[in-house]
Amino acid sequence: MVYVGIPKGQADQEEEVLKTIQDGDSDELTIKRFTESREKPGALWHIYAAKDTEKIREFLKKVAEEQGQENPVDHDPIHDQSWYLDRTLRKRLHQEYGVQGWAIVQFLGDVVFIPAGAPHQARTRDAVHNLYSCIKVAEDFVSPEHVKHCFWLTQEFRYLSHTHTNHEDKLQVKNVIYHAVKDAVGILRANESSLSRP
């Protein structure tokens, strides 16, 4: 989070921001960062374990059906990013499916790391109550430990509609694997003579 600003004339809305943070299920230490340390919050994240993805997907489809919405085969309630789980839906997800995530308030200067395949949602203060302006920088990467999971996500994207924003392989996982193997083989060949010594 590289910038969080409070628009002139809106400094008195701290109570509303505090309520948003509390309703977001934030812990006491996070609340103290805002109330006592006077740090500037920019975004509220909810992050879930990758292992719970199918349960969350099933839950979102169920809620959509209850609201009379269609669930087209070439769309995905998680990848479509068309849902925001408010406090009521988060509580219901926990009660019905045993899924509970982590609430993280991102303050100015904070970095939020989201593991591969972990469903997540973020609300900026602008989106919730039109309070604080913020700018964040996001970067995707593939770690060797999560290549398999990233490849699996890429396969999931292939089944989305051709007009879907996530249809393409943005991470270029196959290229990452190819270049990692090519570099490893190059290093092994360059050190072949020293590796063959007893």
TrEMBL record:
Coiled-coil annotated spans: none
Matching SUPFAM superfamilies: Clavaminate synthase-like
GO MF entries: chromatin DNA binding; histone H3K9me/H3K9me2 demethylase activity; metal ion binding; methyltransferase activity; transcription coregulator activity
Keyword annotations: Cytoplasm, Iron, Metal-binding, Methyltransferase, Nucleus, Transferase
PROSITE patterns referenced in this protein's UniProt entry, alphabetically: JMJC (PS51184)
GO terms for biological process, alphabetical: demethylation; methylation; regulation of transcription by RNA polymerase II
Main location: cytoplasm
Superkingdom: Eukaryota
Enzyme Commission identifier(s): 1.14.11.65
Catalytic function, reaction form: N(6),N(6)-dimethyl-L-lysyl(9)-[histone H3] + 2 2-oxoglutarate + 2 O2 = L-lysyl(9)-[histone H3] + 2 formaldehyde + 2 succinate + 2 CO2
Pfam families in the cross-refs: JmjC
Cofactor: Fe(2+)
GO cellular component: a single term: chromatin
Residue ranges of every copy of the JmjC domain listed in the record: 1-158
Compartments where found: Cytoplasm; Nucleus
Keyword field contains Transferase: yes
Cofactor binding mode and count: Binds 1 Fe(2+) ion per subunit.
Similarity comment: family membership: Belongs to the JHDM2 histone demethylase family.
Role: Histone demethylase that specifically demethylates 'Lys-9' of histone H3, thereby playing a central role in histone code.
PANTHER family recorded: JMJC DOMAIN-CONTAINING HISTONE DEMETHYLATION PROTEIN, LYSINE-SPECIFIC DEMETHYLASE 3A
Designated name of the protein: Lysine-specific demethylase
Annotated organism of origin: Nyctiprogne leucopyga
Gene coding for it: Kdm3a
